[in-house]
Amino acid sequence: MTGILSNIRVLDLSRVLSGPWAGQMLGDFGADVIKVERPGSGDDLRDQGARLKDREGRETGERSTFLSTNRAKRSITIDLTKPEGQALVRRLAAESDVVIENFKTGDLKRYGLDYGSLREVNPRLVYCSITGFGQSGPYSQMPGYDLLFQAMGGVMALTGVPEGQPGAGPQRAGYPVSDLTSGFYATIGILAALHHRDTVTGRGQHIDLALLDAQVAATSSMAMSYLVAGQLPVRVGMGSQLTAPYGDFDCADGKIMIAVGNDKQFTQLCKVLGRPDLAKEERFATTPSRVAHKQELLPIVAGLLKEQPIAHWIPLLREAVVPAAPIYNFDQVYEDPQIRHRRMVRTVPHPLAGTMQVVANPLNFSETPLEYHRAPPLLGEHTAEILRDVLQLDDAEIERLAQQKVIAA
């Protein structure tokens, strides 16, 4: 392995989204990520999403949701309910720098795989536990999914059609924002703990991360209005509570998004629209005044934009450096020249498909560029390889473990 974390090994005991997302990020950075899965079934996400097609165009058992969060990993199948399986994980932890797990609070302690137990075999271990509600508190034993955390974390209080309009009410974000936000926080925490271990103490530590906490933290830019002034944010649909004009507008043949963030941008927008006088009116001259008078401003802007098609406005707005964009479907996303220039789709070799496309990591390092050479693994694809390379087991011992169904080699 090469990359900025090529000296790091990660033992990924997690399933579904948040933990695997963090593991994939570390794998993109060059870490050796060993994904431990249940024999026979593996990660729950192996049953979710569209099916990958093989070289002949036939559907395989590999599904898109799993493929989205598990590249740059090796898969080993181990039965954690068996004592010998638990012993294998402890041995792997002894050879690792990081453990990521998202079991329900307390579950891994039954197997001797909790932080306290693994710290005894490897004091340098950074152990990240990701749960719905955290390791402590009145809800700590409860399971949870993204929908709950969007509801409890305030996302739905911010998202949806404004009150009093048709279709008003709370809405969820269109992707599992709580899971992926938690995955990002987990990655940051792991990197910080590794830095502290390697530069300060020589010892690892436990990271307790809750999806609810992560989602509450992520909405802080909106929540601070409540904390500092008692003002509750409200749903404003596509609009903004802080600036105007900001939202979706009809053109002659469809919608575009315009996001004016300051007075200069508004002045430029007015020039593009052929109404430079609007920027000089007192009620529209500053961001606070535009917000206060947006019910008067928005119909004017909307009426002017509707006179021409999207292809007329977008080049003019971009030339004037006014933030504006078309609203894409995913087929349009990946055909956009900026997305193609940034190489946000990469190709990796795959044992069934020959090659497959993946969405690239957005980080671009000047000295340690990311490499895309390891596709999301088949279930247990690397079981024997890991046991040989990391634990130095011979073929006879691997065969014995397989016969006893501790592993599925």
UniProtKB/TrEMBL annotation:
Gene3D superfamilies: Crotonobetainyl-coa:carnitine coa-transferase, domain 1, formyl-coa transferase, domain 3
Entry-linked InterPro entries: CoA-transferase_III_domain, CoA-Trfase_fam_III, CoA-Trfase_III_dom3_sf, CoA-Trfase_III_dom_1_sf
GO MF annotation: an example: transferase activity
The keyword Transferase appears for this protein: yes
One Pfam assignment: CoA_transf_3
Superkingdom classification of source: Bacteria
Signal peptide: none
Keywords: Transferase
Protein name, UniProt field: CoA transferase
